[in-house]
Structures are given as structure tokens and as C-alpha cells.
From TrEMBL, chain A:
The chain crosses the membrane at residues 23-47, 68-86, 98-118, 155-179, 199-225. It is a multi-pass membrane protein. CDD domains: TM_PBP2. One of its GO terms (biological process) is amino acid transport. This is ABC transporter permease subunit. SUPFAM superfamilies: MetI-like (SSF161098). The keyword Ribosomal protein does not apply. InterPro entries: AA_ABC_transptr_permease_3TM (IPR010065), ArtM/GltK/GlnP/TcyL/YhdX-like (IPR043429), MetI-like (IPR000515), MetI-like_sf (IPR035906). It comes from Actinomadura rayongensis. The keyword Endoplasmic reticulum does not apply.
TrEMBL record, chain B:
GO terms for molecular function: transmembrane transporter activity. NCBIfam families: HEQRo_perm_3TM. It comes from the Bacteria. This is ABC transporter permease subunit. Residues 68-289 form the ABC transmembrane type-1 domain. One of its GO terms (biological process) is amino acid transport. It comes from Actinomadura rayongensis. GO terms for cellular component: ATP-binding cassette (ABC) transporter complex. PROSITE patterns: ABC_TM1 (PS50928). InterPro entries: AA_ABC_transptr_permease_3TM, ArtM/GltK/GlnP/TcyL/YhdX-like, MetI-like, MetI-like_sf. Belongs to the binding-protein-dependent transport system permease family. It is a multi-pass membrane protein. It is found in: Cell membrane. Keywords: Cell membrane, Membrane, Transmembrane, Transmembrane helix, Transport.
UniProtKB/TrEMBL annotation, chain C:
It comes from Actinomadura rayongensis. Transmembrane segments: none annotated. InterPro entries: Bact_solute-bind_prot3, SBP_3_CS, Solute-binding_3/MltF_N. It holds the Pfam family SBP_bac_3. Belongs to the bacterial solute-binding protein 3 family. The keyword Transport applies. GO terms for cellular component: extracellular region; outer membrane-bounded periplasmic space. Keywords: Signal, Transport. Residues 44-274 form the Solute-binding protein family 3/N-terminal domain. This is Transporter substrate-binding domain-containing protein. Residues 1-22 form the signal peptide. GO terms for biological process: amino acid transport.
């Protein structure tokens, strides 16, 4: 073998279907976790500013626990702890049940960060807005829904973008939780005894794949943030 | 965070409604807890033999504390190196010369877009695979000299042309590249947040570029950056747990992978104990961040009062939530 | 200027460490000794073992180690003239064992280390000290899997860093049986596989029978091995490439271990009552190279 063999993309393209399958699994996980974490984060943020102390405490407790636990532990606990040990399975098919636990674990974790981003967004809404909402007789849920959150969301689109980018990258950790995504496929190829010279192209290919996923997401949120910025 | 402005002082009806919500929510939470307890019981997970190990001194001495030491060690080394990386590239991105600015920007953006695990895999698996080929080529000597004289600081070994990277170095490499890029952005935003007049005043009294940077901009930027930096250090500390995937003997590996084979696979119990340790550790660091934020807040003011009810909203790109969301 | 002084400090520290490591690596190269010589002189040896493999190499709560591999390691060390107090155990995993040997971080690796042609390029093997066979383990009450072909449509554990699953699902050269339609479930290692098998998250674990028997003996009554071996796994003692003196000494120690009955005692101690029929004659040795 010579140096030029190190850049031989042959072995990489021989296994391109495994890598694409891995990326598809990554995208499937990221897409659903994105939607769920937005929902979970909004609910949590609403809980944390609600008038009922129990709800506030529940929201605060959840965020503090989840945000300070490593994602690796969260995901392993979902798969090994809840799914395997406690037998809380979604389906008899192992691929399906680990997929849903990965989605749930990742969105539960990301949701805590979405909540915190939203709260800092609520912080940017001028007090006058809330006072005006109250003075025209809106209830708490009405003022949150119609006045505060719409402005808060628009203020935090850029930070939310970073949260989602981090989430996309975090899908890789699901490899530790029995969910087979692109890193799992990559590691399986690296373990393959006959896969000797394709390591550099493999890393380049996977890196390019993540750039393709992450950069447009960043630009999209940047564009959205500019478009929807609150003039104040 | 005072939410008081969002709702009026509750009247009699609102109080009644809040009481109902309180009861319902409490029941719901208790129900969830009960479900968990019941399920644990159904699977025999409350058995003493599964929990008792964590009350024994030798378990802590032989597994948990050594793991904690490795976790903190990797985090400490990575923090120092990442701060250096961040300072260099953050300032580099502000350079007047495009040939410094552009490469720095590309590197920072690239590593910010890469998953940490891929970077760790890169450092851990790639040298081992490609070094034998390099050793046979004309770069063989260069490779050996580089490893012997520089990379050996991090425990990297070369033997018969095969370079091997220890798990510690691989974890540190990944953490430095990713968190260093985040620090670079924090540094850049921090310097940009210093009012323009400060730099102009510096130039006016005859300071050179380096003088303005080191004596005027950086000292002021550091106080602004502190909360964001501490928040990112929490992220970094949590990220060391990814090391378990390449078997770096950190806390998660030792407590979660090595204890359960001895005690009927008490994975769930080990996970709960380890989780508690991480949470305590990170809350302590977060407390420090809050304290630092309070301290640095005094001198800064905003134009209009906001929902934050006192205290400035964080500077753009400076909010803890904006930056502290890195890989896990 | 505080910052500048800090920079100078870092520069000095880097230069210093460069100088120190440069000297260190030079002296290391000049007096490379064979492990057997070093063991005789210093009465110390470092051996790489597994930390999470019951009955083979397991780190116990009190910080000590137990298992067949561990006792073989102790026996060989004794034959090389090292007392038990002179042995340091280190964790050797599939990711790092070649590296550890090459870098001299361990002197020997005795960790379910199969002798293969690819590995023989990188290191020298003493032994083998035992010939294991790939077999399949299922839950004790599961009668639906009696031969590897029954794995079709079942959930098989795929341990990270191990290629055992390939011998079931893929054709040669990487695999063997080429059984299609097996559902692979990822796990971090064989301990996790055993945990998953117990809870029903997988239906079968397929790897070396000694590893499987280890789990079966640790968690008695939970598992059974189906006794359908389909490969030979020659467990060797990993030695730094080219250290033939040590290789020969290790071979002598292994011969003695079988002739004085220690091997039989150890195999009975760790795998007795698991249904595994251990071979108690010396396996044919590889040539030391």
C-alpha cells in the first residue's frame, strides 16, 4: 500500500449503501426529535412561568435534572434501563422500539434546552406587553399564547437554531443506546477486517454528510431569525 | 426569573382553579412516580442486593472515585487546552488580515458542525489505521519524530510504524476541538460586545493593535464572557461521558460498565447513582456561573426594563442557553 | 503584562516537556529487553486482561481480579519468576491490546485473545493456552433455537468491536455461516449482551464458548449454551512482536500448566456445571515468530 491508497474512495463507495442507510436513520431520528423537543420545550417553559407553584416546581425540577445529566447516560438509561430492564417496550421489533426510545430520550433531553432558550426569550419581551395584555383582560394562558410566546419565539430563533444543530449532532450518541445510525455503520466498517485502506475517505464522507445536515439548518435559522426579528 | 407580571394576583375564582390544578397535577406526578415504583417492583428491581453495592466503601474506592478522577482529569486538561484554542481562533477571526481571518473562520465553523463522537473516533481509530502506510512512505521519519517529540505528551505511542492514541488523548482531542470552537465564538462575541469607542480611544492614545487587544478589549470582554464560559465548561464536563463509547475509564464507564457484571446487572441502579453524581457536580458549577453572572452584572445596564424583571438580558450570543447547548 | 507572561509560561512548559520526552524516548529504545529477562530481573510484570468478562477476567468489588484468564496469567507469571505481588493487571480491550503490547504498556495480554493471521502480523503469540469454539447461548427456557440455522428471524446480539456476529450472518472471508434474516441488536459488549438476553431484548448471543460459559456459570439457571460449535478460536498469549524468548518461555509454562493438572483444576473451577466439556490436553502450539 502506498500513500495514494489512503485516499482511495473505492472501499467507501463499495459500502455507500450502508453509510446512506446510517444517515437515513440519523435523519429519521433528528426530524422527529426536533418536533417533539419543540413541543416538550414549550410545555416546560409554560409550566415554569405558570401561576401554579406545583407546575413551576415540576418544570424546574425536570429541567435541572435532565440538563445536568450527560446525554449518553440519558439514552443508555432509556434503552438498557427502561426498555430492557423494565420491559417498557414500544414494539416487539427491536429496531422500532430502540428507535422510539432514542427519539424520546433525545427530545426529552433537547426539550430542556428548548425550554431554557424560550425562557430567555420571554425575558426579552418588554414588561409593558404583559401589562397591556393583562389590562385588556386576557387570562394567563391567553396572554402567554397570544402575546408573550409569539414574541418570545421570534426573539430566540437564532438560539433555537443552535439547540437544533446540537441536537442533530447529538443523534450520534444514540449509537450507545442500541440504535443503529451512521456512527454505528461507520464503526462496523472500521471493525471489518477487510476494510483496511478506506478509513480517511470514510471519515471525510461522514464529515461531509454532517456538514450537509448542519450548515443548511444553521442558514435556515439565521434567515428565519432575520425575517421574523421583532422591531423594537 | 419572576413570572409575577404574567398574571394578576389571583382572585377567589382563580385561587379555586389553581387549587384544582395543583391537586390534579400533584396526582398526575404521584401517579407517574407510583407507576415507576410498581414497574420496578414487578421486575424485582428494588432487591437489596442490587442497591446495597452503592453503600459499600470499596465500590466507591475501586470504581466510582477512580472514574470520577478520570472524568475530572479529562475535563480539566480539555478545558485549559480548549480555552487556549478558543482565545487563538476567536481573536484570529477578528484579524484585519483575510489570510488569518478566513482559515480561522473555516476551522471554527467546521468543528462546530462536527459531532463530538466523530472527532473522538477520528483521533482514536484513524492514526492506528493509516500510520503503517505513512511509515512506509517518505513521511515515515517525520511521523516518528512528531509522535516521539510532541504527541507523546498526550500518551500517543508509536511502535514499528503503528501509531496508537490512548482513549484519554482521543477524548481530550474531541473535547478541545468542539469546545474550543465554541469558546472561539464566545471570545469573538465578547470582544465585539465591548463598545467601539473603547478601541478607538485606545488607538487615539497611540496604542498599537496588540496593545488595544490585550490592554483594552480582552480585559473587558473576559468579564462579559465568564458566565458563557462556565456554562460551556458544564457542557464539556458532561461530554466526557461520551468517552464510555471508546472505553475511556471515566465515571460512566467504571460505574455503569464494570459494577453491574458483579451484581446481577444492576444497570438501572448504577445509572441512577451515576446520574445523581453528575447532577450534583454540574449544579455546583452552575451555581458558580450564577454567582459570576451576578458579580459581573452590576456594571451593565439596559435601556428598557424587560420581562427579566431586573438585570440585563444577556448580550447577543452570550446567553447561557445560546451557547450551553453543545453536544450533550 | 499578565497575558504575555502567561504565554511565555506555556511556551517554556512546552519546550521543557519536549526536551524531557525526547530524552526519555531515546533511552527507552537503547535497552529494549525481552519480557522474560525483565521479569526475571525486576520480579515485576504487567499483564493485560479483561475487566468485565465473568469467569475469564472480571474486576471484583474489592479491586481484585478473578477468572480463568487471570489465573492463567498468575501461573505463567509464576513460571517466569514473578511472585503474585509483582503482577500489575491492566484492562486490555479489543480496541487497545495491540497498541498496549507495541507501546510496552503491558508485557503480556491474556484476554480471550484469538490468534488470527492478521494479528500475527502485528504481534507474537505464545500458546494457545486453550482452543475455544464459537457457540450460541440462549435463555434456559428457550427451546426454539437448537442450531445456528434457527437464528433466522431471531434477535442476535451484536457486540461493538467484535466480529463474532459476522460468522453467523455473513459468508467468508469475514463471516462463515451466512444465515440471512437475522435481526442484529447493538450492544456495547458481551456483558450488555448477556443482560439483554436475560431481559428478552435479544434471543441469542453467539461468541466463544468460554465467554458464554462464563455468563452461564455466573448467572446459574438463566442461560444455556446450545453446543453447536462452528469455529476454532485459539486463545493465545499476546507478546510484543519479535520477542521469541518470551514466547518460548510462555509455551513451556503452558505445557507445565497442563501436565501438572492446574489447567484441569482451573477449567473445572470456572466452567464446571455449565455443560461445557473442556479439553484438558495441551493444545498444539503456534511457532514462535
Amino acid at each position: 500500500m502506498s500513500l495514494s491508497d489512503l485516499l482511495d474512495f473505492g472501499p467507501f463507495f463499495d459500502n455507500i449503501d450502508a453509510i446512506l442507510r446510517g444517515f437515513w436513520a440519523t435523519i429519521r431520528l433528528a426530524a422527529l426529535a426536533g418536533v417533539f423537543s419543540l413541543v416538550i420545550g414549550t410545555v416546560l417553559a409554560s409550566l415554569r412561568v405558570s401561576p401554579v407553584p406545583v407546575l413551576r416546581a415540576a418544570g424546574t425540577g425536570y429541567v435541572n435534572i435532565v440538563r445536568n445529566t450527560p446525554l449518553t447516560l440519558v439514552l443508555i438509561m432509556c434503552s438498557l434501563g427502561l426498555n430492557d430492564t423494565l420491559g417498557l417496550t414500544f414494539s416487539d421489533d427491536s429496531g422500532t422500539t430502540y428507535y422510539w426510545w432514542a427519539v424520546l430520550g433525545l427530545s426529552g433531553y433537547t426539550g430542556a434546552f428548548v425550554c431554557e432558550a424560550l425562557r430567555s426569550g420571554i425575558n426579552t419581551v418588554p414588561i409593558g406587553q404583559a401589562e397591556a395584555a393583562r389590562s385588556i383582560g386576557l387570562t394567563f394562558s391567553q396572554s402567554l399564547r397570544m402575546v408573550i410566546l409569539p414574541q418570545a419565539f421570534r426573539a430566540v430563533i437564532a438560539p433555537l437554531g443552535s439547540v437544533f444543530i446540537a441536537m442533530i449532532k447529538n443523534t450520534t450518541v444514540a449509537t450507545a443506546a442500541s440504535y443503529s445510525e451512521v456512527v454505528t455503520e461507520m464503526k462496523t466498517l472500521l471493525d471489518l477486517p477487510s476494510f483496511t485502506s478506506g478509513a480517511i475517505p470514510l471519515f471525510l464522507g461522514v464529515a461531509a454528510g454532517f456538514l450537509i445536515l448542519v450548515l443548511p439548518t444553521g442558514y435556515f435559522f439565521g434567515w428565519l431569525a432575520k425575517r421574523t426579528a421583532v422591531a423594537r | 426569573m419572576s413570572a409575577g407580571v404574567l398574571f394578576d394576583v389571583p382572585g377567589p375564582r382563580a385561587r379555586a382553579r389553581n387549587r384544582i390544578i395543583t391537586v390534579v397535577a400533584s396526582l398526575l406526578l404521584l401517579g407517574l412516580a407510583a407507576l415507576f415504583v410498581w414497574r420496578m417492583n414487578a421486575k424485582g428491581q428494588w432487591a437489596g442486593e442490587l442497591w446495597n453495592p452503592f453503600l459499600k466503601g470499596q465500590i466507591w474506592r475501586n470504581f466510582i472515585l477512580p472514574g470520577l478522577k478520570n472524568t475530572l482529569g479529562a475535563a480539566a486538561v480539555a478545558t485549559v487546552l480548549a480555552l487556549i484554542f478558543g482565545a487563538l481562533f476567536g481573536i484570529g477571526r477578528l484579524s484585519d488580515h483575510w489570510w488569518i481571518r478566513v482559515p480561522c473562520g473555516v476551522i471554527v465553523e467546521f468543528f462546530r458542525a462536527m459531532p463530538l463522537l466523530i472527532m473522538i473516533f477520528l483521533a482514536f481509530f484513524l492514526p492506528n489505521k493509516i500510520s503503517p502506510v505513512i511509515a512506509e512512505s517518505s513521511f515515515g521519519t517525520l511521523q516518528r519524530v512528531l509522535v516521539d517529540n510532541f504527541f507523546s505528551i498526550f500518551g500517543v505511542e508509536i511502535n514499528a510504524g503503528t501509531v496508537t492514541v490512548p482513549a484519554f488523548a482521543a477524548v481530550v482531542f474531541g473535547l478541545v476541538m468542539y469546545n474550543g470552537s465554541v469558546f472561539a465564538e464566545i471570545v469573538r462575541a465578547g470582544i465585539n460586545a465591548v463598545p467601539k469607542g473603547q478601541a478607538e480611544a485606545g488607538y487615539a492614545i497611540g496604542l498599537r493593535k496588540s496593545g488595544v487587544l490585550l490592554r483594552i478589549l480582552l480585559p473587558q470582554a473576559v468579564t462579559v464572557m465568564m458566565p458563557a464560559i462556565v456554562a460551556q465548561i458544564v457542557v464539556l464536563l458532561k461530554d466526557t461521558a461520551i468517552g464510555v463509547i471508546i472505553a475511556y475509564p471515566e465515571l460512566l464507564k467504571q460505574a455503569f460498565r464494570e459494577i453491574p457484571p458483579n451484581f446481577h446487572n444492576n444497570i438501572l441502579q448504577a445509572g441512577i447513582v451515576v446520574g445523581a453524581i453528575y447532577i450534583a457536580l454540574n449544579l455546583a458549577i452552575s451555581r458558580l456561573a450564577v454567582w459570576l453572572e451576578r458579580r459581573s452584572r452590576g456594571s451593565r445596564r439596559t435601556a428598557a426594563p424587560t420581562m427579566g424583571a431586573g438585570g440585563a438580558p444577556p448580550a447577543p450570543g452570550m446567553s447561557a442557553t445560546g451557547t450551553a447547548t453543545g453536544a450533550d | 503584562m499578565r497575558l504575555r507572561r502567561f504565554g511565555a509560561l506555556i511556551g517554556a512548559a512546552t519546550a521543557l516537556s519536549l526536551a524531557v520526552t525526547a530524552c526519555g524516548s531515546d533511552s527507552e529504545k537503547t535497552d529494549a529487553k525481552s519480557v522474560v529477562q525483565k521479569a526475571k530481573d525486576s520480579k515485576k510484570i504487567t499483564i493485560g486482561i479483561k475487566y468485565d468478562q465473568p469467569a475469564l477476567g472480571l474486576k471484583k468489588p474489592d479491586g481484585t481480579f478473578e477468572g480463568f484468564d487471570v489465573d492463567v496469567a498468575r501461573y505463567i507469571a509464576k513460571q517466569l519468576g514473578v511472585p503474585e505481588s509483582g503482577i500489575t493487571f491492566k484492562e486490555a480491550r479489543s480496541e487497545n491490546r495491540e497498541a498496549f503490547l507495541g507501546g510496552g504498556q503491558v508485557d503480556l495480554v491474556i484476554a480471550t485473545y484469538s490468534i488470527t493471521d492478521a494479528r500475527k502480523q502485528q504481534i507474537t503469540f505464545g500458546g494457545p493456552y486453550y482452543i475455544a469454539h464459537q457457540d450460541t447461548m440462549v435463555r434456559a427456557d428457550d427451546n426454539t433455537i437448537t442450531k445456528p440455522q434457527d437464528l433466522k428471524g431471531k434477535k442476535l446480539c451484536k457486540a461493538a468491536g467484535s466480529n463474532s456476529f459476522r460468522r453467523v450472518t455473513e459468508p467468508p472471508p469475514d463471516g462463515k455461516l451466512n444465515i440471512k434474516g437475522v435481526n442484529l441488536v447493538d450492544a456495547s459488549g458481551y456483558s450488555e449482551c448477556a443482560a439483554k438476553l436475560k431481559t428478552g431484548a435479544v434471543d441469542a448471543v453467539s461468541t466463544d464458548d468460554l465467554i458464554l460459559a462464563g455468563f452461564a456459570s455466573q448467572q446459574k439457571g438463566s442461560f444455556k449454551v446450545i453446543n453447536q460449535p462452528f469455529t476454532d478460536e485459539k486463545y493465545g498469549v499476546g507478546i510484543k512482536k519479535g520477542d521469541t524468548a518470551t514466547c518460548k518461555a510462555v509455551d513451556d509454562a503452558i505445557t507445565k500448566m497442563y501436565s501438572d493438572g492446574t489447567a484441569k483444576t482451573l477449567l473445572d473451577k470456572y466452567f464446571g456445571g455449565t455443560g461445557l466439556k473442556p479439553v484438558t490436553t495441551v493444545p498444539p502450539f503456534e511457532t514462535c515468530a
